[in-house]
């Protein structure tokens, strides 16, 4: 066992002092806060990434510097494990401890504790691949990260400015290179080639689609979408909007997938361009979330969110498995959260197994791994499809008995190539949606008519202590504060098609209330009544009670 290079860690750590008054938390999306406060955190993540790689025998770890759909001033950093997945949960705690060590000496102690507790052999090599989005705080944070690698003697590979899902792809491609499970060429170019080629195979002979407009949120998705446009050419004409990546203040501003989902209206930049019936979609600031939409003949906006995508894709895959003659052995399942629209859950549950898990992509991802083919999407448009290794092997050795079975099997194999199975990937998901629409000859209208969304409403309640709110049953029921769930149940019973649940947010200091009901006015009323209950129960100041919260 060798030792930590204490001298070099000390020297470089002095260049990245921790702000005394701030506490950092490795949360659902890694560390995420004002970009100007993250210098020490990112330096230390560089150290931790090196240790994580050593722990895993020198496998390559990923680091992504992004704050996704957050405002432009924010930034963030998260680690990616060797198979392209999110960092193992136990290391989130290490990350938080290391980020908060007040001094360089305390940092060294914290690092030594991690080395001891995780039994890390420091003589192993350390390799990290890293990237950032287009935020202006990015370059300085990347320098801090590189100092972290330098301090530990880790080997870094800079993947430049790219999307979060491409970084996840790279991590997996690097770690599976020259193995039987090779994920593809370990370069951005390899990613574009892999996805475009499978898209072309899947849409060969189909009618050439109308141009698709992509709202790139003025973020890094604009760069990746432009590369796809070149690779895809006429097979999928793309019109890019909101591509102003260098304009200060433009990122995610009145555009992007989160804006569209929250505001349920067109993003800026599309308002005068979208023709009735034309398909458009929005990416978020790091291109891992996707929202589709269209305007009808009267100019009304219709949104096709993560639930609609899950439904479209799951139904398509179920059909392919059946047509390939594999339905008796390969089971397709869907994973959602409580925020999934009740109408989507009903539609899906009539056709295949559906599981509900706690909010946060890692929960969905892990649950989806339990199916032969697991489809998971959050309503906000983050999701993907996972094909288990045995399923992929079965595809490879299966012998179809009819030409129709053979065609379906080939489509399934090409889907395993088209879909970024490491993480939700807006552009890969977009290609997937386009494949299904082409196969089904669906327009947005037909896709949207698979089921009608139940009207719903999401409300934030600011409370003094959101930790007092504890849930069970995949966050669908409150166990504390005591008695509150019974009151919610009593209210919900009064509304036709009513459903409501309350949970503390994992990313904001609020409690979220979700409600749906058969009619829009009722879903709003139910949400505001439950919000009122929550506010009062949490001891909210009566004089500051938001006026929309009903008694
Ligand atoms: C209602 C909602 O959209 N919640 C989001 C939000 O989580 P909260 O724990 O609800 O703050 O951020 C998560 C991370 O991006 C995302 O996974 C999740 O879907
Ligand atoms: Mg994102």
Automatic annotation (TrEMBL):
Annotated Phosphoacetylglucosamine mutase AMG1 domain residues: 211-290, 305-442
Domain Alpha-D-phosphohexomutase C-terminal: 458-531
Keyword Ribonucleoprotein: no
Keyword Transferase: no
Keyword terms: Carbohydrate metabolism, Cell wall biogenesis/degradation, Isomerase, Magnesium, Metal-binding, Phosphoprotein
Annotated active site: 68
EC number(s) reported in the record: 5.4.2.3
Database matches in CDD domains: PGM3
UniProt cofactor note: Binds 1 Mg(2+) ion per subunit.
Function: Catalyzes the conversion of GlcNAc-6-P into GlcNAc-1-P during the synthesis of uridine diphosphate/UDP-GlcNAc, which is a biosynthetic precursor of chitin and also supplies the amino sugars for N-linked oligosaccharides of glycoproteins.
Protein name per its UniProtKB record: Phosphoacetylglucosamine mutase
Lineage start: Eukaryota, Fungi, Dikarya, Basidiomycota, Agaricomycotina
């Amino acid at each position: 066992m060798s030792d930590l290079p204490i001298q070099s860690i000390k020297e470089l750590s002095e260049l990245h002092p921790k702000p005394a008054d701030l506490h950092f938390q490795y949360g659902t999306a890694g560390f995420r806060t004002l970009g100007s406060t993250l210098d020490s955190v990112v330096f230390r993540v560089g150290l931790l990434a090196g240790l994580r790689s050593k722990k895993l025998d020198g496998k390559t770890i990923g680091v992504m510097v992004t704050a996704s759909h957050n405002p432009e001033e924010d930034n963030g950093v998260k680690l990616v494990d060797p198979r392209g997945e999110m960092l193992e949960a136990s290391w989130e705690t290490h990350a938080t401890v290391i980020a908060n060590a007040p001094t360089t000496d305390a940092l060294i102690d914290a690092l030594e504790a991690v080395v001891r507790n995780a039994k890390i052999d420091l003589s192993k090599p350390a390799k990290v691949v890293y990237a950032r989005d287009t935020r202006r705080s990015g370059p300085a944070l990347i320098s801090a990260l590189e100092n972290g690698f330098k301090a530990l003697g880790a080997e870094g590979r800079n993947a430049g400015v790219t999307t979060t899902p491409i970084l996840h792809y790279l991590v997996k491609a690097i770690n599976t290179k020259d193995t039987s499970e090779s994920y593809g060429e370990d370069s951005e170019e390899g990613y574009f080639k892999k996805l475009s080629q499978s898209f072309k195979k899947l849409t060969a002979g189909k009618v050439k689609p109308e141009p698709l407009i992509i709202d790139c949120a003025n973020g890094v998705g604009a760069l990746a979408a432009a590369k796809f446009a070149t690779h895809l050419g006429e097979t999928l004409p793309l019109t890019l909007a909101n591509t102003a990546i260098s304009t200060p203040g433009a990122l995610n501003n009145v555009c992007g997938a989160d804006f569209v989902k929250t505001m349920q209206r067109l993003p800026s930049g599309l308002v005068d361009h979208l023709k009735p019936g034309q398909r458009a979609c929005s990416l978020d600031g790091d291109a891992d979330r996707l929202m589709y939409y269209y305007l009808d003949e009267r100019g009304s906006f219709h949104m096709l969110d993560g639930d609609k995508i899950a439904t479209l894709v799951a139904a398509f895959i179920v059909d392919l498995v059946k047509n390939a003659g594999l339905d008796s052995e390969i089971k397709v399942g869907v994973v959602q959260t409580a925020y999934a629209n009740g109408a989507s859950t009903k539609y899906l549950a009539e056709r295949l197994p559906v599981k509900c898990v706690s909010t946060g992509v890692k929960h969905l991802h892990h649950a989806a791994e339990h199916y032969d083919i697991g489809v998971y999407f959050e309503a906000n448009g983050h999701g993907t499809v996972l094909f288990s290794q045995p399923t992929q092997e079965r595809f490879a050795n299966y012998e179809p008995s009819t030409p129709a079975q053979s065609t379906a099997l080939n489509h399934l194999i090409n889907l395993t190539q088209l879909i970024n199975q490491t993480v939700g990937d807006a552009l890969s998901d977009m290609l997937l949606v386009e494949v299904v629409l082409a196969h089904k000859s669906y327009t947005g209208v037909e896709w949207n008519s698979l089921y009608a969304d139940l009207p719903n409403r999401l409300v934030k309640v600011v409370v003094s202590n959101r930790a007092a709110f504890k849930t069970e049953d995949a966050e669908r029921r409150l166990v504390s504060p005591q008695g509150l769930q019974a009151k919610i149940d009593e209210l919900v019973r009064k509304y036709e098609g009513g459903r409501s649940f309350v949970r503390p947010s994992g990313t904001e200091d609020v409690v979220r209330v979700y409600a749906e009901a058969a009619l829009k006015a009722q879903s709003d009323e139910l949400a505001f009544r439950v919000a009122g209950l929550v506010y009062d129960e949490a001891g909210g100041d009566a004089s500051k009670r938001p006026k929309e919260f009903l008694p």
